[in-house]
Please model this.
Amino acid sequence: MTLSKLDLCHHRIVLKLKKSCHELNGEQMGKLAVMLLNCQSDSEGRPLFPCTDEMSLRQCRERMDSDTWNAYHLITNRAKAVCASVRHEQFRGLTELTVNKLMSTAHELLRMMGELADSQQKLQSVTREAIDEMVGNNECIMHQQVDIMKLSEVHRAKVESNFCELVREKSLIRAGQQEVAVLLTDLRARIDGSMRQLEQQPKRSKVNHDSLLTDLERLQANAAAIATKIDETGIHFVEHHRVAEQQYRYTLEQL
Model:
């Protein structure tokens, strides 16, 4: 709605009021009439009469002539009606503005609620996908744990088997060492006996001497063979120990 210059002046004056139109006293109502008269005079190109809050009503009316005074009284009689009418229009305008703002806010809320609903659906979809992925990952992890436990059992059995084999071989080596020790002791005893016999019978016949030398050579050969067997057994033990240690370390790394 387009307002005229006079209507705009009335609205400016009423907006400046700090009280309701029906709560104005005589002094305030007179000043309101002077300002409304100025609006009418300004729209008709007639002289204006300054009237501020600091001025008294008498100061506002002191320069009025008789015609202006009559117009002032007419304006005074209808000042309350003009004030109330302008107030009503202002209230209606503010009401329409408020309703428009409320409608705009309502539409904005509806739009935001729609976006929120879409976001909620997207969030539910993402959450559902995340839950499904977590369930799948948990099942995969459980299967991997089962496989790891089975592999651990297999390696544990291998370690136990290797350990038992190592103990058995150590026992065999110990028995072989004891046997070799017995053979060496017996050989030494026989050699010592032969030496004593040689010392006691220095004049024994050459045949017996040759036979004794032959026995000594055979005994030395046996001793060499036994020493070779000991060396081979030691090498086999070291190699088997190295293989067992490598298997044990591999098993620990796998675990």
In short: Residues 79-200 form the longest helix (122 residues). DSSP finds six helices and no strands in the chain. Residues 51 and 62 are 11 Å apart (CA to CA). The chain has a mean pLDDT of 80.
